Amino acid sequence: MSSEKTIVLITGANSGIGFETAVALAQASADLHVLLGSRSLEKGQKALDEIYSSHASSLLGSLSVLQIDVTDQPSILAARQDVETKYGKLDVLINNAGIIVTRPTDALTNLRETFETNTFGPAIVTDAFLPLLQKSPHPLLIYVSSGLGSVTLRLDQHNEYFRIRGNEYRMSKSALNMLAACHKIDFAEWGCKVCAFDPGYTVTNLTGPEGRARRIQSGARDPKEAANALADIIQGRRDDDIEKSGIVDLDGGVKPW
Ligand SMILES: NC(=O)c1ccc[n+]([C@@H]2O[C@H](COP(=O)([O-])OP(=O)(O)OC[C@H]3O[C@@H](n4cnc5c(N)ncnc54)[C@H](OP(=O)(O)O)[C@@H]3O)[C@@H](O)[C@H]2O)c1
Fold first, then answer.
1. The organism sits in which domain of life (predicted)?
2. pLDDT tops 80 at residue 60
């Protein structure tokens, strides 16, 4: 039997934007159950403990940890089985897990690792969870992408990130945007809303501890802002933007593909 609650799975939710989104959603509504996806059960449990110890009084919805490594097919299939057994459906899938390879490495290794997590990962996670999304009365699929994956913005000399290279990351997010565009078309027939979302330049662990310090210094945004925007999307407050062609922007409207 299907759960009465709206079941939301966030991959990579033990840190950064995913973590804050888990908090924001659990604070938003008693009707939500958040599956805090983490490739490490230990890190996931630590994150959950932190949520309960820091936010216990403001939590309305419920949370639990789900082990899921988006580059590991057996882990994804085991996670799907677990969700099917416990809840019988999935209402919202947030493909959030992502990486930037910061250690010095050759181009092929960087490309492979980046694409494995940022592009192939979300594609195979969606594929595995599709039958459960199809059991939801209001399915929603979100790809956490980046404005750095916008081809239009890459060519704009006035864009604030014009001097930022990171071609492997940019390519992986461009391909993710295409996946979101394809799924927007493919899944419309069974009523699934699909979007790519840009959380903006944010203070997280994406580029390690030094990167985190640099982000703070250079005025990057609080991950709670992206989390609140994702909560708005899930609560239907950004449906107009989801209808548009482009990457849903945290500040409203869309960025060009
Ligand atoms: N921060 C920004 O400025 C920014 C801007 C645009 C887009 N984004 C996107 O936002 C998303 C979230 O990143 P973040 O900034 O919040 O960085 P973060 O703090 O590093 O969080 C990334 C999360 O992804 C997880 N992850 C990495 N590889 C995984 C795998 N194979 N399977 C499952 N989980 C995995 C990490 O787990 P571990 O802790 O185990 O590594 C972590 O929980 C990413 O898709 C990123 O590209 C971020």
1. Eukaryota
2. yes
How do strand 254-255 and strand 247-249 relate by DSSP bridges?
antiparallel
Choose which CATH entry (3.40.50.2300, 3.40.50.720, 3.30.565.10, 3.40.190.10) describes domain 6-255.
3.40.50.720
- Token couple for 223: 């991950």
Residues with CB under 6 A from ligand 1: 11-12, 14-18, 39-40, 43, 69-71, 96-99, 117, 121, 144, 146, 199, 201-202, 204-206
Nearest to 30 by CA among 60, 64, 63: 60
pTM for the predicted model, two decimal places:
0.98
Amino acid at the residue 3: S
Q: What is the three-class DSSP state of 145?
A: coil
Please report, for the chain, the start and end positions of each structural domain, with discontinuous segments joined by +.
6-255
